């Protein structure tokens, strides 16, 4: 929309008259979808065209943070805790437009001061978002790096294991256990021998037997999203430390990090969740099973909140500060230490795009709450503001 580009440029350089301002307001009101990615692109293009030297760094910061924090952060009163909104997933209407305008102004005034504060940590710039890489390991010690940037197809042919149709591990794999793992700061997508696709999150791993074709069983540590190929003659089982999930063909996400409750979120189909003490429940799409110490509960959720990481964004829904920072630790491969005076009752709701630099995300957290950050000896120290 050339007209939007023109008016937006005038608004941002301060030459927009009252009639043009109302026209801009009307365009955004009638086209709320423009508020997200399209507006991000238009902001970037407008500034690059008009002020390529003077304001380039400033606008880069505005554009990045526009994707993290389009809504001015407001504490939401709750019993004994506060939830800070970092990003509203469905920004629509006049209020959203007001907030975008005020947010741009807010950043342009305060950016330099707070960028300098974060830059004092120096080496914070070395912590980049997760990249696509993994390691395939056999239980006899043989291994191969998987970092092609594309989905790796694992297949078994006789006693040989093939990756994308090629035999990359010499020797027989009969009766071997195959493990695919991601370190902190990485993720990977793999297609199993039956055609099922697995998105492996950071600091996670799956293991399965080389006899996978006859018994579709996978062990999971960490988090993964499964798109299971339908096969009524062979059930597909995912085992974690605290439970197992049985399916025939479906799509679901399991978060099973050792220090967090196990969450099984169903997107499509049906799954059965079982615990070692023989408790079991059957999920329907849009339901989530939460396993706390083998106590299963079901709740209705927006499954996209728990699977959007496979599409390039991490969402936080009333996330306690310690759990949120655990996720940040895994995604950016950085150790985190939370001071004792940081209240654990603080929760955050928001959205983080996968490519967002750590420094930018910390800026948003710092601006939206009463916590601050310091990088010390390659460890992120989290404190309350003084």
TrEMBL record:
Record domain Protein FecR C-terminal: where: 314-382
Example of a GO MF term: sigma factor antagonist activity
The organism's place on the tree of life at top rank: Bacteria
One Pfam family recorded for the sequence: FecR_C
Descriptive protein name: FecR family protein
Transmembrane regions: 85-107
Domain named FecR protein: residues: 179-272
Xref: PANTHER family: PERIPLASMIC SIGNAL SENSOR AND SIGMA FACTOR ACTIVATOR FECR-RELATED, PROTEIN FECR
Keywords on record: Membrane, Transmembrane, Transmembrane helix
